[in-house]
Prior knowledge:
4-stranded antiparallel sheet, 380 residues, single chain, Tetrahydropterin Synthase, Chain A, rod-shaped
Amino acid sequence: xxxxxxxxxxxxDDNFIWRYPNTKFxxxxxxxxxxxxxxxxxxxxxxxxxxxxxKYTLETNNIPLLRKVIEIPTGGKSPFQCEVYFVDKVEKSMxxxxxxxxxxLEPKYQFPISIGACGEMRFIIEDSRKILLKLxxxxxxxxxxNIDDFFESQILMKxxxxxxxIITEEKISIFEIDQQLEKFSEELKKKLEADFQEFGIxxxxxxVTTIAKPxxxxxxxxxxxxxxxxxxxxxxxxxxxxxxxxEEDTKAKKVVMSSQAxxxxxxxxxxxYQEEKAYQIGQKVAENQAVGQFTNVGVGLGMxxxxxxxxxxxxxxxxxxxFATLNNVVCPNCHKELEKDTAFCKYCGTKIxxxxxxxxxxxxxxxxxxxxxxxxxRIG
Length: 380
């Protein structure tokens, strides 16, 4: 045994727990703990004195727990035997994966299925004593391979159970799980946090990066094809609905634009919608050449007085033209239209009995009447 020895982590690797190879020391040995590390003296199954970053000379006053357990005498250089572990306190990353497949009932289509999963986790050791007490009692040698095996057997074995719970509770279809990996990972992390805390570890992140599906399972492939056919049909229906809504919206906008254009035209030409409708009615009245419809003509003429100047003048012209036509006569035999002063039909020779109508009120008058006997209008 060397009378003086420097105790420190001799190699830089990814192992978050490293045991110093020698176990025999004496007081006055030097202990060097780097930043992001803690050193723990371990003896007889107990995690004893703990040192943070710094350089220390081991003396009986700074290893009181170890001194008490192995009864190191005070004063002078005293030999003692124990294990020294260096624990990294920085965040670590570790790949994980299920060694066997998880079997469960697919929640949407209710068929049995088996899947695997893998990913990455990030963690930091919060309690060095706790993790050493958990590990050292199970593993005699703490190399990286043994630590990985320990995590898989003690913690990651629970991942399969938690995955089945989440898939069932959230009703996540195996055909949709890839789109929900972020949420799925977060739910798994929440369930695993307490398990990691039992080992003095804070779980910062837990990612599921890949779900291994049974692509060689005939039943899985049949339901996969059915699922995607339904998805395509649904997508097509949604697209058709969107197109119909766009068409209806376009039609509605066209109507609005047309109405706005008509309103602008009326404003520029100086008339209103009500005046335009009155004008249209006046045109229909003017076109009615039937003698028996003069009552309707009277109604139309009454409406003209409510129109604007431009519209009123136009309607008056239309009505005047209609009355000009009404002043002509029709042969009662061959029904040909003749001039108003015709005595005999020039087509069949039938005698024409001439009648007159008042141009103002439409009343029937005698052929020689000079004024209307109903309203007094002069007959031209």
